[in-house]
Design brief:
7-stranded antiparallel sheet, 5-stranded antiparallel sheet, alpha+beta, 226 residues
Length: 226
C-alpha cells in the first residue's frame, strides 16, 4: 500500500484500487514518557497500543452504525491494525471537539477560580483548532465562521453530534462500571458531499476514563468492553 500521510499515532494508506485505510501505530501522545491524551506530540511507544486502539475504535464505530450516527468507518482488520474508511476532508487545518462530563485537566487550569476539580458537568462541548505551535487554541462559533473553517449552521450540527456520540460512549462505558470524564472527537465532510461525519478514531487515547477513583489505562479499556 502507498502511504499518503504519516500522523502521530496513525498513517493514512491507499491500496491499488484506491481504497483508503488508517494504519494504527504503537506511538502514543504524551510528555516525558507519560501518556497524555491532550498532548500534541508523540511521547512514547508502547507495543500493542495500535491494536488496542483499533479494537476499541471498531467497537464504538459499529455501535454508532447501529444507532444511525454518520461516520467515515467502513470496516476493520484488527490483525493488521487496518481500518478502511471513506475519504473525507477536515475543517480548516483540523478541528477537535471535546465533550466534558467532569471538570478536570485543562478545564480546571482555565476555570479553576469558578469550579472545583472533579465537579460533574453536563456534556459541555469545546472546540479547538488543531495547531501544535499554538497549543490547539480554543475557538468559538463566530471565529470559526469568520475564519472560513465552518459555514453558518455547521457549529450547531457538530455540537449536537458530539453530544450524541459522547453520550453513547458514556452510557456504554457506564454499563461496564466505568465513568467517562471527557473525550476528544474529530469531524469532517465526506468527499464529494456536504455531509458531516465523525472521522479519525474513537479509542482509549482520545478519552479519560475512570473505574471509581482509578484512572483506567487507555490500553486497558478494550478489556472492559470485551
Amino acid at each position: 500500500m502507498e502511504t499518503i500521510y504519516q500522523g502521530k499515532t496513525k498513517d493514512l494508506l491507499r491500496d491499488a484500487e484506491g481504497n483508503t485505510y488508517f494504519h494504527f501505530k504503537d506511538d502514543m501522545t504524551g510528555t516525558d514518557g507519560e501518556f497524555d491524551p491532550g498532548a500534541n506530540h508523540v511521547g512514547l511507544t508502547v507495543e500493542g497500543s495500535g491494536k488496542a486502539n483499533i479494537e476499541v475504535s471498531k467497537y464504538f464505530f459499529e455501535k454508532f452504525e447501529e444507532k444511525g450516527i454518520p461516520t467515515h468507518y467502513i470496516d476493520s482488520n484488527t490483525d493488521e491494525n487496518l481500518m478502511q474508511i471513506k475519504r473525507a476532508t477536515v475543517f480548516g487545518q483540523g478541528l477537535e471537539v471535546i465533550c466534558r462530563f467532569v471538570a478536570v485537566g485543562s478545564f480546571i487550569r482555565r476555570y479553576g477560580l469558578y469550579i472545583e476539580s472533579g465537579t460533574k458537568i453536563p456534556d459541555y462541548v469545546e472546540f479547538t483548532l488543531k495547531d501544535d505551535d499554538r497549543e490547539d487554541p480554543l475557538v468559538n462559533e463566530d471565529a470559526l465562521v469568520l475564519l472560513g473553517v465552518l459555514e453558518e449552521g455547521e457549529y450547531d450540527k457538530i455540537k449536537q453530534l458530539t453530544k450524541d456520540i459522547s453520550n453513547v460512549i458514556k452510557e456504554e462505558l457506564a454499563s461496564k462500571g466505568l465513568e467517562l470524564y471527557d473525550i476528544k472527537l474529530e469531524f469532517g465532510r465526506l468527499e464529494g458531499s456536504d455531509e458531516i461525519v465523525l472521522i479519525d478514531e474513537v479509542s482509549g487515547g482520545n478519552m479519560r476514563v475512570f473505574d471509581g477513583d482509578y484512572s483506567v489505562n487507555p490500553l486497558e479499556i478494550g478489556k472492559y468492553l470485551a
